[in-house]
Amino acid sequence: MANFFSIFTITNLLILSLALNLSLVMRVYLNSEKHGQPKVVDVEGPATQRTLLSVSSSSGEEDIDKVINLNHGDPTMYEKYWMMMGDKTTVVIPGWHSMSYFSDVKNLCWFLEPQLAMQIIKLHKAVGNAVTEGRHIVIGTGSSQLIIAALFALSPADGSEPMSVVSTAPFYSSYPVMSTYLKSGLFNWAGDARSFNKEGPYIEFITSPNNPDGFFRSSTVNRTGGMLVHDLAYYWPQYTPISLPADHDLSLFTFSKANGHAGTRIGWALVKDEEVAKRMIKFIELNTIGVSRDSQLRAAKILEVMTNTSVDSSGESFFDISHHLMAERWRLLRAAVNNSRRFSLPEFAPGFCHFFQKETMPQPAFAWLKCEDDEVEDCESFLRGQKILTRGGSKFGVSAKYVRISMVDKDINFSLFLKRLSKLQ
Amino acid sequence: MANFFSIFTITNLLILSLALNLSLVMRVYLNSEKHGQPKVVDVEGPATQRTLLSVSSSSGEEDIDKVINLNHGDPTMYEKYWMMMGDKTTVVIPGWHSMSYFSDVKNLCWFLEPQLAMQIIKLHKAVGNAVTEGRHIVIGTGSSQLIIAALFALSPADGSEPMSVVSTAPFYSSYPVMSTYLKSGLFNWAGDARSFNKEGPYIEFITSPNNPDGFFRSSTVNRTGGMLVHDLAYYWPQYTPISLPADHDLSLFTFSKANGHAGTRIGWALVKDEEVAKRMIKFIELNTIGVSRDSQLRAAKILEVMTNTSVDSSGESFFDISHHLMAERWRLLRAAVNNSRRFSLPEFAPGFCHFFQKETMPQPAFAWLKCEDDEVEDCESFLRGQKILTRGGSKFGVSAKYVRISMVDKDINFSLFLKRLSKLQ
Question: Is the ipTM of this structure higher than 0.90?
């Protein structure tokens, strides 16, 4: 009965997915008929249509040999939404545009495109997830660059020893490697914030909601001399209730997780202290001499649509639709997991979301799955045996019985994953 | 007479510039009339036309209070060429394209767009400035990121002390700061290659033609254990005779200096050794999780036009036109400098250029000017007094009597610079 239920919902999902794909293909074709051929060269048009069609036609059959890679948080789930929006986020960049290194010489962050700065502020205002007043916006080539920029900015250039960098386990698996790979004399990874007891200044990363487990977080160490970096990559309404606007000294956001455009390497920091902002800007200047201007122009256009669809009543709200998709995925995953004693998932409490003006549940971009079987000590290896690639708990500073699984991959991969999970029961 | 000559040529240049601007504005308007209004949103259209018009209307008058910033090598000179090319390099990127982190999972460099890789190879073949066979292409967020990636890749992770990094003075002013700003335990700046006498392995940067002075360069240290990084940012026909295809272990190129698109942060490395390529790729993965895909798509389109116009006979060859512009600027600069004993410039020998199939002169992207006056010890300060911002010799490891001056700025700035230089005689 349990097995029947799981397969039934997966089949339903596949039919829904097929219908959505077909409607999108129709829409793409209708749009191109209505608007005629583009006047300028379209860099990827036909390939995208092929991809769409191939996903549609193959999504009804399982490829038993296919390796499903849910190790990375590659947010390809969002492609469908942006297809549905058609030309609204298309950018046209003529060859002579944005050639100079400089975006805005009057801004402290001279490589920040003014229109992107404006759209970042508008989006935060519309969503209510961050205070932007009295903040400097520092743009980065993804939030990875901003994480290292923050470490550089918060560590004194003439310190007698490297600044300690901590985060509470399970922590984002990149923090340790980002703090150590250059063997910097400025900063160094000092491990789990819970066991950190060294005197003196330190930097604590607070990821909230947390990657990998999705829980809300606040500072663990709470000592004088602590400098906090709030990594708010997942503080968006599709993942978590927006309880209040974040009001920290240094907050990080990233384009990839907010809207799914991971290939456009854009992140931003909201920084209260001017000197810290200056040091972060200096780091990015030395590291990459600014941030690609064409990517920023594209980013501005995408954020504008996110804001506009949130406030109008067209029924195309990015956050409404994404929230719905994430809710459906979490419902299906919990149904698959709850039918078995082999796995477990975190349990979340609902919270009032000021964006949706109602109570919502956390539904993180990653599932933090635990293998409950006594025989399975290494959940990542166990799932790899099922051709499901995940990221094991040890990389996040905890037991290998846990794995992190991307919840934002394409429908076809998510469906296959659920089907294989159901078969393990 | 000398003064009359200088002013006469500057006036001529300004008239020519004005005529070119007007013809470009006409072309932009005619193109937009012919093609009608674009179907999709143009991110900067009206602003660009305003800029064009304002440059045209003000280029005939000198603003005596204007600070001319020739400190950076901001290659805005090239804007006109790309305007002239109209829609040929326009990219249209729909909102759902290039969303994944991954460009090409089959490539060692998984974040390299296949079409950009193809265009890089085609351009090198057309120009004849680098061997690409047997090389891995590693793409970077500008060549700055690749410089640090090379340092990371060539330094052993478990070395007992940091690897020494050297270059022959005058060296690119960023090498020292890039090698030291993170206080890395992997590598450290060890100064002028000429005075380097430490035993053991080392990394030598060879910039050829050299930034700042434009001369050809080869290795200075020439010892066992040396690893050479050839920075070939300026090895393009508009700057120097292309004597033969570069055939090194590790060569760096950058989009900004090849074609003027500094705002599109793209550089590339040609790397012989697979392990070195892998380490560079790892660095970029940790630093920025790849390189913006939209910037790469734009870059591919621009390189394609550079290659195509080099081999067809349309009279629109990027390298022909750029070479002509650089030759004219150098002619005017030398005329201004030779009329005085206060300044001097490097003297170059001509060389056979296999690209142009004739003898050509080096005409670097920077002028390496020396203040010959006995009273002027600090040439940068002296010129700053004339509201001309340059970069002083001490930043390049030599005497402050030298300054580096950008030769690739906008016409208006270059003309004002020449006029002020002429007045100093």
Answer: no
